[in-house]
TrEMBL record:
Compartments it resides in: Membrane
InterPro entries recorded: Memb_transporter_dom
Origin species: Microterricola gilva
Protein name: Fusaric acid resistance family protein
Domain of life, source organism: Bacteria
Occurrences of domain Integral membrane bound transporter (ranges): 213-338
Membrane protein topology class: Multi-pass membrane protein
Pfam families: FUSC_2
Keywords: Membrane, Transmembrane, Transmembrane helix
Length: 353
């Protein structure tokens, strides 16, 4: 037997955290901060959602070498911008509900297939679905269609540049200071065969059925912001090849509920937009630190991030915003849990037969 490992000192833990997470979290926070503060300076913070979804480009390419990262981040940027553009077009043209539902199905299928084939991380269509539905729900004058899509494009391009900036920093530091930076071990490869895997299409069916059912129920019950229920379903259902764990789903539900409480503490005092923006940037940083360790814990910060941006884009009574979020999270999560249980039951039957 080998010698037992000695406990890490505080400095070693801080060094490990820096090597693994600080660089990525800083990029993500910077990518969302700059566009939002520009909009605040221009007195157009009502367009925060479009900048935020473009900035989500920086959430991709984590721990990947730069040649591969460029591919991953570019695919994510295109997916996010197309989702925003589609949702904004639906809003500007007053498209009927069935077109929004059809667009949702297309985004879910394309998002899951692209993630599986190109090895994207996060491997779910969550951010694409979120961008589509929020932008489709925001009233949009037809004359501002190009402006709003353009903001998403500029924000995505800035996020892409920020995400690739470490290449220059590493070259400038050279070998002498190479230990300042985290290693880049993740090497996703293109797998066209992934598009034929049964696990992928199981995830597609789960997400499509769950999203449409959650959206329909939320609208039938007259709950505001029905897209929260859809987003909750997509957040709960695991990606292809991931274990269909009930505990993981429950962690996500608890994380969202705690995130709603944090959002209440932030928004009930009715702070000025500058304070909300600072909180959004801090939440983005914290969420990116936690997401690789515990998605449920990350949701404690993802929720105020999302609700803070939603409140800036379309201010509503805080109590209404929070209640809608809690109710629809419970609805979407319940549907997601049922689909997780159904998949486990079908898997067990397949093994027994």
């Amino acid at each position: 037997m080998g010698e037992p490992q000695r406990p890490q000192s505080l400095s070693e833990r801080l060094r490990s955290l820096t090597a693994l997470d600080i660089e990525v979290a800083s990029r993500a926070a910077l990518a969302v901060a700059v566009p939002l503060f520009v909009l605040l300076a221009l007195d157009r913070i009502d367009l925060a959602a479009y900048a935020s979804f473009g900035a989500m480009t920086a959430l991709y390419g984590r721990s990947e070498p730069y040649r591969l990262r460029l591919r991953s981040v570019s695919i994510a940027a295109v997916g996010l911008v197309l989702s925003v553009a589609l949702g904004t077009t639906l809003a500007a043209t007053g498209a009927p509900l069935w077109m929004t539902a059809l667009s949702l199905v297309v985004v879910i299928v394309c998002g899951l297939v692209a993630a599986a084939v190109f090895g994207l991380f996060p491997p779910t269509p969550l951010f694409f679905v979120f961008g589509l539905l929020v932008c489709a729900a925001v009233p949009t004058p037809s004359g501002e269609l190009a402006l709003r899509i353009g903001i998403a494009v500029c924000s995505a391009l800035f996020a892409l540049a920020v995400t690739m900036s470490g290449w220059l920093l590493r070259r400038a530091a050279g070998r002498r200071h190479a230990d300042w930076f985290k290693s880049l071990p993740r090497s996703p490869r293109i797998r066209w065969s992934a598009a034929r895997e049964p696990q992928l299409w199981l995830a597609v069916v789960q997400n499509v059925v769950g999203a449409l059912l959650a959206g329909a129920l939320a609208m039938a019950l007259g709950i505001g912001h029905p897209y929260w229920a859809v987003v909750s379903v997509v957040a709960v259902i695991p990606p292809p090849h991931a274990r269909h764990s009930i505990s993981r789903a429950l962690h996500r539900i608890v994380g969202t509920a705690l995130g709603v409480l944090v959002t209440g503490l932030l928004l009930f005092p009715e702070p000025p937009p500058l304070v909300i923006l600072i909180a959004v940037v801090v939440a983005q940083f914290a969420a990116e630190i936690l997401v690789a360790r515990n998605y449920g814990a990350a949701l404690v910060f993802v929720t105020p991030l999302a609700l803070g941006v939603a409140h800036l884009a379309s201010p509503l009574p805080v109590s209404t915003l929070l209640i809608d979020r809690l109710v629809e999270t419970a609805l979407g999560a319940a549907i997601g849990l049922l689909l997780v249980l159904a998949a486990r039951w079908l898997s067990a039957r397949g093994r027994d037969s």
